[in-house]
Structure formats: C-alpha cells, structure tokens
Amino acid sequence: MESSATFSSLPGSGLALARGLSAADENALREAMRRCPPAAVEAALQFRRTGDPAQVPVVIDGLIERFVESQFRPRLRQDPAKLRLADDLGIDSLTMMEIVMLAEEVLQVTVNNDELRGLVTLSDVRAFLARKLAATAAPATR
C-alpha cells in the first residue's frame, strides 16, 4: 500500500496522538463507525491506541466506503491515485463534508473547509490527511 509508506515516513506522524483509550472512548468510536467495515473500525481503534500512521489509510477507506453508494463500492479496490471522488465514487460536496466530519472525530484532527478544494482522488485524501496528522503531531515531538 503506497500511502502507508507516506504516513510512516513522515517524522513524528501520529506519535503525539497515541494515548490511552478508555472503554467509553472505545464504545463512542465504535458507535460513530457503526456502519463502517469492521477492518476500518479496528484500524481506528489501533490508531487511537498507538498513533500508528499505517492504520490511517484503512480508516480513510472505511469512512469513504460507509458513505459511497453500494454500486460504487467495488471501485474502491481500484488504484487510489486514479479513483476520483466525484466522478468515480459519486461523492458530492455534502457527502464529502459528512466524511470529513467523521474523519475529524475518528482521527482527532481538524479540517478547514477550504482545505478540501484540491482533493480530487482517494490518493489526494490519504496524502492530505497524512500531512494534516504529521502537522498535528510535529509540534508535540519537538
């Protein structure tokens, strides 16, 4: 998975996010992701427990799968660099906002609406969140 390398190669990525996960936090996370694939839920829990950036692409893919219409889901197995959010997956701006809101909750990151404008492909989303998480983690590692 090419994007995993992107996450793990960023200095300090995720490390500041690693912290204990209470039973209440775990239950809340499971509830928020209740319609996501089980692998995405487990990856989110692992990320929240350890800050492991290799889990993030699985989380992102699961969040997107949750909101994509069933007829488009098989396309999620295509090359993420070529998989266009609107054209190939039918994700409109409202759906993108729902995905972002859930990603903010799950990954504990804040995303400004203006930052979403350049995101065209699934690969763009992964890279954007990798940079965002690295920027969040970097100040705490200095």
Which secondary structure elements does this structure contain, and how are they paired or packed?
Elements: H1 2-9, H2 23-32, H3 38-50, H4 56-67, H5 85-89, H6 93-107, H7 122-137
Helix pairs in contact: 3-4, 4-6, 4-7
Which features characterize this protein?
Non-ribosomal Peptide Synthetase Peptidyl Carrier Protein, Chain A; mainly alpha; 56% helix; 142 residues; disordered N terminus; single chain
What does this molecule look like?
With 142 residues, the protein is mainly α. 56% of the residues lie in helices and 0% in strands. The protein has helices at 2-9, 23-32, 38-50, 56-67, 85-89, 93-107, 122-137. Helix 4 (56-67) runs antiparallel to helix 6 (93-107).
End-to-end separation in angstroms reads 29 Å
Largest sheet: none
CATH architecture: Orthogonal Bundle
Unreliable residue runs: 1-18
Query: How large is the share of residues in beta strands?
Result: under 5%
Q: Kindly provide the name of the CATH class.
A: Mainly Alpha
| SSE succession | HHHHHHH
Multimeric organization: single chain
Number of domains: 1
* Mean pLDDT across all amino acids: 83
Number of strands: 0
Number of helices: 7
Residue share in helices? 55-70%
The CATH topology is given as Non-ribosomal Peptide Synthetase Peptidyl Carrier Protein, Chain A
Tell me, what's the shape?
globular
